[in-house]
């Protein structure tokens, strides 16, 4: 029976542990928090899982919240600089998505894998500990994204695109919003002002209040919406968000105005430098360990791929490890990572691609999706399976071919654009010439 030490009881660590326990491995799971500590922790990232990953968690028996709302549609609003709504895309997901508070997930997951036979050890793990564990286990896997351990894994310059943050981030979980003001929020809503601001409104199951919304905000550093740097509390951050929404997305103001945080600790701010690291680290003794999840692949949250990527990676390696049985040499582990990267690269390419300005072809696809629900559904499938977006969403020639296969020709695109232009002119006219009171006159 193979033995493994898993460092980190987050998404990748728990999924890997549950999968290998099912395969008959002896698992020792190292966590820096107890199950109770997780419940008392600060708010964590939204971590919305999409279809295939939701199903895999259920297959592993890690789905403990049947009452949590599933997200079955996404509504996206794309705005112009003058606050005009260019167009909206509203389409179903092929499989439901689910966002559960990670404080609940990690607490319950830690208890569950221990109940199934994993040995759970609580405490920090350093390099000396890794060396000791590597000597006594068939394999050691680092899934924790702590700097003290990720520094062991060398940055891969060939696979890492960025060297500095591309967005400033803010997240807050809210309750008390006015759903009647914006029924679209019964499902997922994305609000985009390209080059300035992206806001994701995600149905969320919060530890303290249950049904809620997690609002993830990404702003261009130094831009007009970059106002969260000095925020020191959930209330303060939510007030800043309300100000920005009033200015940029005023149609969301009525929904957001009465909202309040689900608790004082359910908020996050910061920046992330996307990076891909080499998967095997050599310890001072010459022994080696494998990295998974955020320890080796860290993407900007814009594409919502953090927990999804961790789940896919843990699933792939659990299957490969169980089939191989050992020995787990550095070259074999690196080879498996390279094999995984053949598909995993699309997750990073998707995430990095969304950080770049939208191309004309991408705008055309989104415009077509605003008129054709089937195209919108294909677009949203990228959150579940990023490889499904390639090459057609990121290559101009492939985009034209994709649209042609769906009978969207140049005249159709022209008609769509004319419709958008007419709509934008109508919005500007409405702002310039407001409806006068009875007996009054219109004024600019």
TrEMBL record:
Q: Using the record's annotation, list all stretches that form the Styrene monooxygenase StyA putative substrate binding domain.
A: 145-253
This chain's protein is named 2-polyprenyl-6-methoxyphenol hydroxylase-like FAD-dependent oxidoreductase
Gene3D superfamilies, A to Z:
FAD/NAD(P)-binding domain
The UniProt entry, under Pfam families, shows: Smoa_sbd
- Lineage of the native species? Bacteria, Bacillati, Actinomycetota, Actinomycetes, Pseudonocardiales
Q: Which domain of life is it from?
A: Bacteria
Q: What species is given as this protein's source?
A: Saccharothrix carnea
